[in-house]
Amino acid sequence: MIGFFGLDLKLNIEEIWETEKGLKWVNTSKIPFIDANGEIIGVIGISMDITERKKAKIKIQQSEALYSSILSASPSAITITDLEGLITITS
After folding, report:
1. Can you tell me the distance from the alpha carbon of 58 to that of 24, in angstroms, rounded to the nearest whole number?
2. Are 49 and 57 in contact (CB under 8 A)?
3. C-alpha to C-alpha distance for 76 and 14, rounded to whole angstroms
4. pLDDT for 16-68, tens place per residue?
5. What whole-number distance in Å separates Cα of residue 10 and Cα of residue 19?
6. 3-state secondary structure the chain
7. Domain coordinates of the chain in residue numbers?
8. Which of 17, 31, 53, 83 is most solvent-facing, going by the fewest CB within 10 Å?
9. Phi then psi for 33, rounded to 5 degrees?
């Protein structure tokens, strides 16, 4: 994203960081720190640990893949309904 003074801003970038406790997923945003003369003199950065969110997302994707493979491989018709009886998934 192009922002201040036409400089490239790095906003909401997901990165993997290696820490003493293992790998962590973080969401980072970085912008240049500019002095009164318009010179870049540093970087302002913010990061948020999103490891648990990423792990949950991976588990959901694995579960969806499992259900999809079960539905595709079954020789029988499979229908799943919600609590109101509405069909949510069918093979």
Report:
1. 14
2. no
3. 42
4. 999 999 999 999 999 888 888 888 899 999 999 999 999 999 999 999 999 88
5. 22
6. CECHHHCECEEEEEEEEEECCEEEEEEEEEEEEECCCCCEEEEEEEEEECHHHHHHHHHHHHHHHHHHHHHHHCCCCCEEECCCCCEEEEC
7. 1-49, 52-91
8. 83
9. -100, 115
